[in-house]
Amino acid sequence: MQRSANDKHRLEMIDVARGVAIVAMAIYHFAWDLEFFGYLEPGTTAVGGWRLFARSIASSFLFLVGVSLVLAHARGIRWQSFLKRLAQVGAAAAAISLATWIAVPGGFIFFGILHQIALASLLGLAFLRLPWWLVASVAVAVIAAPHYLRSEFFDHPALWWVGLSSVNPRSNDYVPLLPWFGAVLCGIAAARLGTSTGLFERLARSRPGGWSLPLQLAGRHGLAIYLIHQPVLIGGLWLFAQVAPAAQPPRDIQFTRACTAQCEQTHDADFCSRYCVCMVDALVAEDRFDEVFDGTPSPETDTRLQDMVSMCTVEASSADTGEDGQ
């Protein structure tokens, strides 16, 4: 429960904001599930507007974590409620890791949004009494860190949670400490500024209309909704797929479409066409295509993937050079 600075009124607008984030999360996950069951093109939710949508949702959740920390504990850490909430989020994060490790071991969630919330909530306590401008400055540094501090030193799996490995590991939900802790710090800075300017006193007197009640309810029970909404969505789509299954193109075409969609975020279409064909040919030649397509690559295949990526990048780039020279 979040309260205003005078601790007399619940900040219903914070619940509404959290409820909006939860609805947005459910929309994105539903699109992801449609892609998983073959009703959307492979790679749809990993690129373009969908990718930006996903990052905006994660950022909003973490920003609200920072705001909530200030509202609940800035005048003194209420250890009993803090530790209870931390235990709930930590247990939920562990359950997500276990469930996804069983269901999708090749991309299981070892440090997702709940893991980030648990760690960030603990680290955020150190910033609750600092000036807002100092917290904001640290937030900028944290967000920028992966652009300047990546190193092979962090490539060991035990350090993947930091977010500074040279290549991002495979996971269906990867929200490492850096840069995502920066969103929490932004929330803390904004809440510190809001407290000093009387924003929360004004928000405490604001009463949104009846339209907001479902969002407030969702905002108050966000953790429970997070845990149950995907099983419900996946179960419903699975039942629907038994009646009206999606048409499935050949696996190599699915792979090539997903590869091309992702590649075209940073390269031109001609390069991506050559690169993705090269990747399919290389995977098939070494009999590794199925395990990569299924998301269950062995450690050896993960290593070979990096070599294939380098090889196909060189081949696609060489073709560009050759064409330019004609």
Walkthrough of the structure:
The chain is an all-alpha fold and 326 residues long. The chain folds into 2 domains: 12-241, no CATH class; 251-324, no CATH class. It is built from 13 helices and no strands. The protein has helices at residues 12-36, 48-73, 79-103, 113-124, 132-148, 177-196, 199-204, 213-220, 222-243, 251-263, 269-285, 289-293, 299-324. Helix 1 (12-36) runs antiparallel to helix 2 (48-73) and helix 1 crosses helix 8 (213-220). The radius of gyration is 22 Å and the shape is globular. The chain starts with 11 loop residues before the first helix and ends with a helix. 28% of the residues are buried. Mean pLDDT is 89; it is low at 1-8.
Number of helices: 13
Which percent band covers the strand fraction? under 5%
What is Rg? 22 Å
Unreliable residue runs: 1-8
The ordered H/E elements are HHHHHHHHHHHHH
Key features of this structure:
326 residues, 13 helices, 0% strand, 68% helix, 2 domains, globular, mainly alpha
